[in-house]
Amino acid sequence: MSTVSPLRRIDWLPKLVLAPSFVAAFLFIYGLIAWNGYLSVSESRLLPNYEFAGLDAYRALFDSDRFHVAAWNLVIFAFLFIAGSLAVGVLLAVLLNQKIRAEGVLRTVYLYPMALSFIVTGTAWKWILNPGLGLEHTVRGWGFASFSFDWLINPDRALYCIVIAGIWQSAGFVMALFLAGLRGIDESIIKAAQVDGASMPRIYLRILLPSLRPVFFSTVMVLSHIAIKSFDLVMALTAGGPGYATDLPATFMYSMAFTRGQINQGAASATLMLAAVAAIVVPYLYSELRSRR
Amino acid sequence: MNKTMTLRSTLRLSALTLAASAALLTGVARAGEVEVLHWWTSGGEAKAAQALAATMKAKGHTWKDFAVAGGGGDSAMTVLKSRVVSGNPPAAAQIKGPSIQEWAREGVLTNLDDVAGPEHWDQLLPPQIAAGLKYKGHYVAAPVNVHRVNWLWVNTAVFKKAGIKPPTSWAEFFTAAEALKKAGVIPLAHGGQSWQDFTTFEDVALGVGGAAFYKKALVQLDPTALKSDTMKEVLTTFKKIKGYTDKNAPGRDWNLATAMVIRGEAGMQLMGDWAKGEFLAAGKTPGKDFECVASPGSAKDFSYNVDSLAMFQLKNAANAKAQRDLASALMSPDFQELFNLNKGSIPVRLNMNMDKFDACAKQSSKDFVESSKGGTLVPSIAHGMAVPSAVEGAMKDVVSQFWNSDKATVEDTMTKLVAAAKAQ
Fold first, then answer.
1. What is the CATH number of domain B33-147+305-363?
2. Does the structure's ipTM exceed the value 0.85?
3. How do the domains of chain B map onto residue ranges?
4. What is the CATH architecture of B150-303+380-420?
5. B103 at A interface, C-beta within 8 A
6. pLDDT tens, A198-240?
7. What pTM was computed for the model?
8. Nearest-by-CA chain A residue for B197
9. Which of A88, B95, B248, B274 is a plausible cystine mate for A171, CB 3.0–4.6 Å?
10. What is the DSSP string of chain A?
């Protein structure tokens, strides 16, 4: 019995197969994160420059009025976008779960926006919300001459237009996740609750939705990273305007790094965005990994 | 992406075939390859670029087109940066204004004095523009054209209907705008993008403050000029203009605004002379269907936007030779005429024969020469000619915010302008 089993002999094979992708991931994800981090404390302007400059770029960032606007916009946008998508998505999922006719068609209708790119969504909503072309123009054409909906061109309201377009795109995705969750719940729980005399809304609020906590968490995770890295939607819908009223950190980063010749400030804002994502992801991963153990 | 790739490879292929046949026919040895990064991709611009390619092919060199779409050139600059960082720069790239100095400071541009010296560029170019193409006294870029930024485009029929004449001062501008409003047209077609807001601001600063104030405030960035009574008047006038634009302006592209003037929906537009291309493309005649007049109060001034190609250091000697020929070709009278007839701008060389050009270009050329002698030739801040890109961007932000926000006050904005001037 001295022969080694054939399975043992190729023990190194999986490691070999995974090695290139591991190296690639390590280099191009973590390596580039480190590189970006170093650029943010360097003298880089037009081209990367590796002279150390300390925290100048971060100081300039916190002094910049535009970055304050961008960061504050992100807070408002992320909150409204996540809350709105969740509310609309959950509502749609609950309504679709009522064993209605033509559910497949309706599900596709609601899920379809997710198949579009944010650029398409942004461009379409830009036309819909343009006062001279879209909604306002149409409603006025119907005879309501005093109807006004010019949020897109109002610096104080334009951000909400981005929220509306974002919710329109993402609500269907939230709906799909929750619908799948609701379908996964055992019928007998509902039956038992009904035997106890609970009404349907009460069953949803007290039993079904609370049991979907994991779905809820993963939805928030996905939506919040979409919110933080939002770029294409803003570019297509308002391009950060009017003025820089709808700038987000991602659009700010792009203009600093690629059009203003201030790579260090762009890198600094990218680092802050990474920190924001990490602030959400790390606790989540921690709780996930710990519970698995 | 795919389309441009195939387009580029097709271009490259046809360029190669042409060069090969040219080499066979004329027996040119040691022909080099010039790769030029540009974003002349729209109608007239593309034609102008083809003219340059043909010139180079006639000299026996290979033309490698490196066109990156996107009018402002942002994406082109990103591509250029990656090429330069990886040690493989193109022969020339469309870089202008103080950015030339920024690139030269990185030590990647080549010295063109061996072409510029024998060809007397110093005498052919206005000193101010020549200075912009040099780094530490040596030429590093070759100019191709001059755009005048301070133009006011006027629809003649609309003006006749309203019974008014093109305005020559800001006071007259507002009288004309009122008359147009009464006649039921939008007085001023505007596109609410930050660079267009900034272009309008620049026109107002030049018209209200004059060339001396403009230079002091927007070129030398003197804090006392940026926070002066003149600047107060500039900002007040600038904000007043907004009342004469329509509310759908935010985000509108400049050519759509020009189209409004062409169709007679709007009476005027403040825009550089690239707007002329739109009028001509719509079959309109200058002097008859539309008029080009200097923006109010700036008849004697000329704010310029000079396109130029900065030349990079190349390792291959044959390619470097081709690059020299390119620089020489760019400055030749033939090319300057051909290119600018197609692009709508005027030649940067002084003393050119302007017979083939239209009335607007002739006027522009005359003002260019006169203002260069009279010291009223100023670099356009809105088009990257006056200050480094970081300062330009920061000031553009302030001006755009002032234009768009009803809460921004004049005092506040001046303080912010002073702060923006220090962005480095």
1. 3.40.190.10
2. no
3. 33-147+305-363, 150-303+380-420
4. 3-Layer(aba) Sandwich (3.40)
5. yes
6. 888 888 888 888 888 888 888 988 898 888 888 989 988 888 7
7. 0.81
8. A243
9. A88
10. --PPPHHHHTTHHHHHHHHHHHHHHIIIIIIHHHHHHHHHTB--SSS----B-TTHHHHHHHH-HHHHHHHHHHHHHHHHHHHHHHHHHHHHHHHHTTT-TTHHHHHHHHHGGGGS-HHHHHHHHHHHH-TTTSHHHHHHHTT-TT----GGG-TTTHHHHHHHHHHHHHHHHHHHHHHHHHHTS-HHHHHHHHHTT--HHHHIIIIITGGGHHHHHHHHHHHHHHHHT--HHHHHHTTT-STTTT--HHHHHHIIIIISS-HHHHHHHHHHHHHHHHHHHHHHHHHHHHHH-
